[in-house]
Amino acid sequence: MSYDDRDGFIWMDGKLVPWRDAKVHLLTHALHYASSVFEGERCYNGKIFRGREHSERLIRSGKLLDMDIPLTVDQIEEAKYAMLRANGWTDAYVRAIAWRGAGEDMGVSARKNPVRFAVAGWEWGNYYGDAKFKGARLDISKWKRPSPETIPSEAKAAGLYMICTMSKHAAEAKGCSDAMMFDYRGYVAEATGANIFFVKDGEVHTPLPDCFLNGLTRQTVIGMLKDRGVNVIERHIMPEELESFEQCWLTGTAAEVTPVGQIGDYNFEVGALTRDIAEGYEKLVRE
């Protein structure tokens, strides 16, 4: 089904509106200048996993874009659960979004335009389909994550995903599930919408998030690994190291924990630690 033509309700600017009526004007600033921030969250058994932390990050993302979201964390949480109740969902993906709307300004500056806010949701299965069980196949993107001197890399901002969309399209054209990206220095960074982990000799290596988002799922998984006594090394990883790693997985709200079987010409086993973390995460989010 098309995402603009569904039954149900979306919380928008203080009230629930019928799905098909949740619209914005053509001259909405965010549509032209990417002045938008968002969060992707999952609700399991009626509870949004790390929901308040997502809401806190949304507000921080807005501030990084010089955009004050006109709601408190508590109000954002109330909006999320109101949307879920209105649609009768206990297990769903939740998308909270804030953006600069149409107003007196229609140029690069948008100080006179209102900041708007909405929460939508939908029932969503595995982001990578059966790759979650067999191991995803990843392309290597030609696009690189930019320097934090050029973008607010700590913000979950819509404009930062442009090269992610382009990279994923190129990957899908090759029959891959996703693409891995390097950063502006040539280090391994992340996938288009998920962080990445590698296993070697019983230790876990993951790129240092100094120019891309330090995902909440990433943080959760690092905590799980440390609780299991696994040594986690956050560092810069060179491309030539890929051939030495034994296992690999992706983490993200949508991806959850997804094993990776191949990146470019490099192959990985869906090993015991990968499966343990994937199963452990599935259990944790439903507690």
Structure description:
This protein is of the alpha+beta class and 287 residues long. It has 2 domains: 114 residues, Aminotransferase class 4, branched-chain amino acid transferase, N-terminal domain (D-amino Acid Aminotransferase, Chain A, domain 1), CATH 3.30.470; 154 residues, D-amino Acid Aminotransferase, subunit A, domain 2 (D-amino Acid Aminotransferase, Chain A, domain 2). It has 7 helices and 15 strands. Strands 7, 8, 9, 10, 11, 12, 13, 14 and 15 form a 9-stranded mixed sheet that branches. A 6-stranded antiparallel sheet has the order 2-1-6-5-3-4. α2 crosses α3. The model has no long low-confidence stretch (mean pLDDT 97).
How would you sum up this structure in a few lines?
This protein has 287 residues and is α+β, with helices and mostly antiparallel strands.
